[in-house]
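Repro:
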Amino acid sequence: MGSAELNDFVKRVSERTDVYSVVSAYVPLTQKSGRYWGRCPFHNEKTASFSVSADKGLFYCFGCGAGGNIFKFLSLIENISYFEAVKLQARRLGIDLPEKKYSPEEERRRREEKILYRINELAQDFYYEYLTKTARGEIGRKYLAGRGITAETIENFKLGYAPDEWENLLTKFTRQDFSPQQLEAVGLVAKRKNSSGYYDRFRGRVMIPIIDVFGHVVGFGGRVLNSEDENSPKYLNTPETVLFNKRNLLFGLDKSNRAISAAGAAIVVEGYMDAISLFSAGVKNVVATLGTAFTPEHAKLIQRYARKIIFCYDNDDAGQRATIRALPIVQQAGAEVYVVKISDGKDPDEFIRKHGKEKFEELIKSAQTLIDYRIKYVLANTEHATTGGKFRALQEILPVVVNIENDILCAEYCKRISAALVLDEQLVAKAWKKFLKQMQETAHQPGKKFIAVKRQKIFERTDPIIRASCEVVLRMVWHENDMIDYVLTVLPTEIFSEPQREILFWLKNYEEQGRRANQMNAAEELSDEANAQLSRILMDGSDEPLDTEIKLFNDSVNILRRDVLLKKYHRILAQSEGYKSGDQEIYNKSIQELIKVKKEIDNLKGN
């Protein structure tokens, strides 16, 4: 499928898409002031700040900054790629997808992958049938009933049971013309070590299907039921396969992603049963790691839906150590991190079965911030009565608190740390500054990575007049692409925010190629932040530059030029004060430069 054919396909889907109908299927909308408004599906809010412009085909949330065209909306809310969103909408509209041509090798891989997915789906059905409809599944049903798992939950998660036999699944599936090698490729069987042939990997276990966010069964987790077999691990996962990678998967995310978006937070637990119990009790925004440490990939997965991540690991030492290991990973990803410590019970499953949903939600509301949790953990697990102990405890606390940017919070935590360690506040502040300096120096060393987290800001400029003027200029350049050279000539790019500079240079590139930029290109090629800002900017103006827009553009350029000149004037003025008692020739030149800049400023006032 060529690029022209692809562009034509995307254009046809876009032209036939009613933006209001698509968005309103996910978000209740009300019309006001020529737009539609609703509560944002991408973050938790009480007041509607999510806006849709049906005539422009754009959306923007003034609360979280998400924005773009309708395909961007679908990609975010369905957690799929941009082109997958186009294909989804095409299927809904009954528009046939263009045929893509694959190489013979690509065709072979695609066919094989489909077979592997199909094997996993059939295995899920096989285990589910064994649990729910056979006499041998009674042991599994009794175990789940003892854990408070209902028939509804069993059906919802398609839980199953693997019979305690060596070749049950192997025999059944090879009779369906699947090869042992294909079954091994998805981790359902394993080769015998001392003889030829294969055997079922999962035997005598309650089976938990692991499903990716697209709804594909990619693997299984099995909980052993025969406690007499000391050699069998309590939980056995599918090994790494072409479909299954624990670093990139979170159990339950396929079911909880909407709830995570709605709540604005994800609760991360350690075990399958923790996640299943919470979900069944009505706590839907929950996911579990798959018997592995929390990874940066896990953080990225969750942050597609929410920035707030709440860790609720087991209350034993292993669970607390796992929490401590996970915290810096999530912090570096830029998430808001909180920690829940189970007050009564060893894990979330036990707590919610004992106390119920309301008590668990109260526990979540009392979650500690990453910093508070880290401080308490260090104080509880270090000997800080001696001078050396105090120093070691301080060095463990500083990596977390050093990322605080708010001056008031910095001062507050400095007081709290000094009080907790019985140290002079000035000493703590001095150690804090020293540690921060070391981190900054490390950041500039080759091969080193600066670990301090920087907060994402929608705008670098805080002056609302300057910010609005930048947006007016960008809107005009979008409509009249040939004006970009004029803008880049009269205005320094530094006056624009980083996302706005990205938009400018992107438009400049299109102008140089003699191409016309559009919303489809923007959604595919710009960063999420730049695309969202562009959507909001375009929503605020007319589709064509009217006389009023042109006058507003000229006024905005003058405002920005005046801002640049005023900064230049004050910079020269400050420098001239240093020359006054020194070199008279340099001082006179600086005064002449001041007069020249002042004249330029006055001329702008008269325009």
